[in-house]
Amino acid sequence: MTRFFDNAETVDPKVRERQLFDRLPGFLADISANIPGWSNRLAGIDPAFVNSREALAELPVLRKSELMQAQSEAPPFGGFANEEMLEGTRVFM
After folding, report:
1. What distances in angstroms separate CA 67 from CA 1, 50, 59, 62, 71, one per listed residue?
2. Are 35 and 82 in contact (CB under 8 A)?
3. Cα separation, 40 vs 33, whole angstroms
4. What is the pTM of this model?
5. What SS3 string covers 2-21?
6. Within 13 Å, how many C-alpha atoms sit on residue 69's CB side?
7. Helices (DSSP H) in 1-93: which residue ranges?
8. What b/e string do you get for 41-75 counting C-beta neighbours within 10 Å, with b at 16 or more?
9. Within its chain, how far is the Cα of 91 from the centroid?
10. How far apart are the C-alpha atoms of 5 and 19, rounded to whole Å?
11. What is the spatial distance between Cα 27 and Cα 41, in angstroms, rounded to a whole number?
């Protein structure tokens, strides 16, 4: 047994950051295509260009008040959750 929970903990921070930013565009493209709330929120943003801290900082922030409004209009998650992944699970609020 090692002292670390995951091997990612021992990766050089710069390498780890690069790995995360390499995966981010694909993640953003996936949620934009499959989750309506994120599709609307990220409209007009090309996920391929979100590959650095500077580009990430340009994404719109989802404020708590906006999330609460979306949840009241489309309960329970306001369109910001992949409902297929939630199928058969319990949600505690």
Report:
1. 42, 22, 16, 7, 6
2. yes
3. 10
4. 0.81
5. CCCCCHHHHCCHHHHHHHHH
6. 5
7. 13-34, 36-41, 53-57, 64-73, 83-86
8. bbeeeebeebbeeebeeeeeeeeeeeeeebeeeee
9. 19
10. 18
11. 14
Q: Determine if residue 82 is left, alpha or beta; phi over 0 gives left, psi from -120 to 50 gives alpha, anything else beta.
A: beta
Q: Which of 30, 31, 45 is nearest to 79 (CA)?
A: 31
Residues belonging to the chain: 93
Coil, helix or strand at residue 82: coil
Cα–Cα distances in angstroms (integers) from residue 65 to residues 6, 45, 62, 70, in the given order: 35, 22, 8, 9
Q: Return d(Cα 22, Cα 34) in angstroms, integer.
A: 20
Q: What is the CA radius of gyration of the chain?
A: 16
Q: What is the pLDDT of residues 23-77, one digit of tens each?
A: 999 999 999 999 999 999 999 999 999 999 999 999 999 999 999 999 999 988 9
